[in-house]
Amino acid sequence: MENKGHVLLVDGMALLFRGFFATAFRGNFMTNSKGVPRNGLFGFLNYFVNAMETFQPSHVICCWDMGSKTFRNEIFREYKANRDEPPLELVPQFDLAKQLIEAFDIPNIGVEGYEADDCIGTLAKQLHQQNHITILSGDQDLLQLVDQQIDVAIMRKGQGNYELFTHDNFYEKKGLTPQQIIDLKGLMGDSSDNYPGVKGIGEKTAMKLLKEHHSIDQLLESKASLTKGVQKKLDLYYEDLTISKKLAQICIDVPIQLSIEEAIFQSRVKPIATFLTKELEFHNPNRWLDRLALQA
Q1: How many distinct structural domains can be found in the chain?
Q2: What parts of the chain have a pLDDT lower than 50?
Q3: Is residue 88 domain-resident?
Q4: Are 102 and 222 members of one domain?
Q5: Residue 279 CA from chain centroid, whole number
Q6: Does one domain contain both 81 and 182?
Q7: Are residues 181 and 91 in the same domain?
């Protein structure tokens, strides 16, 4: 398979939140003369530039959530209902982060009613036949997208520390296939996203069941061979299981219109330097710009 390019799909929210909380716990919000906090943007730039150096993409696209309500809330009203509102100091940095990406001449992608994960999944599946894809995030839900030509780089603690999941190493690392990650979340639920799974089935039991039966469908077909306890749980929480699997699955048919040519990384120094110094008041933009292959 001939590759035309290497596309880096960036989970913008993951980088911004990580950048913000890296200094927020010390009360350091890096507020500028306009009273605008910049600590999330500072961290975002550090993570973004490091990823560009590490993965050397030819194309870059940044994906964003577009509000707290998505189609998943229509399936399950309590989806992510346990999440707190973002800190007030972070709120003004959302739009500035998108403006920052625009200054780099990188497409910002977000679609009402869908999560950034869904946009990333859709673009990865659209583009991977003719391009190598690297997905940059801290969100392990995205591991279900790993495939031929699709890698997921999970950001670990510390800058420049990535765990790279590929088609070749995935089973060795996780003990499951990427597709089974959806069923794993369906069985065990996800407390951070506030959906239940099957009450009484945790990760250890869910892993064992999927290794033996491969999928939720096959598990249900061979229910009679399971222990009485597991049978009872599957019967009692069947609706929760069905809903949880739907919530866990990333949508890969989001209506996105994007030409791959729009994502070619060919940023120019001047608009980025101007935005960093005039708008954000970062007085040493070369700490980032010197590390990127930018055009004059």
Answers
A1: 2
A2: none
A3: yes
A4: no
A5: 27
A6: no
A7: no
pLDDT of residue 3: 65
Over its C-alpha atoms, the chain yields an Rg (Å, rounded) of 21
Here the CATH number for the domain that contains residue 243 is 1.10.150.20
In a shared domain, residues 73 and 184: no
- What does the block give as tokens for 281? 């008041």
Same domain, 154 and 208: no
CATH number for 263: 3.40.50.1010
The answer to pTM > 0.90 is yes
Quick check: is 25 in a domain? yes
Which ranges constitute the DSSP H helices of 76-227?
Answer: 91-103, 116-127, 170-174, 178-188, 203-213, 216-221
295 domain residue, yes or no: no
At residue 144, what are phi and psi to the nearest 5 degrees? -65, -15
| Residue in this structure with the two tokens 């980032």, named with its chain if needed | 288
pLDDT score of 2: 59
SS3 152: strand
- Residue 163 and residue 156: Cα distance in Å, rounded? 7
Extended strands (E) in the chain: 5-11, 59-63, 108-109, 131-137, 150-155, 162-165
Tokens of 25: 């716990």
Q: Give me the half-sphere count of Cα atoms (radius 13 Å) on the Cβ side of residue 230.
A: 17
Q: d(Cα 31, Cα 19) in Å, to the nearest integer?
A: 14
CA atoms within 13 Å, Cβ hemisphere of 58: 10
The end-to-end CA distance of the chain, in Å, is 34
Q: Which of 126, 149, 158 is nearest to 61 (CA)?
A: 126
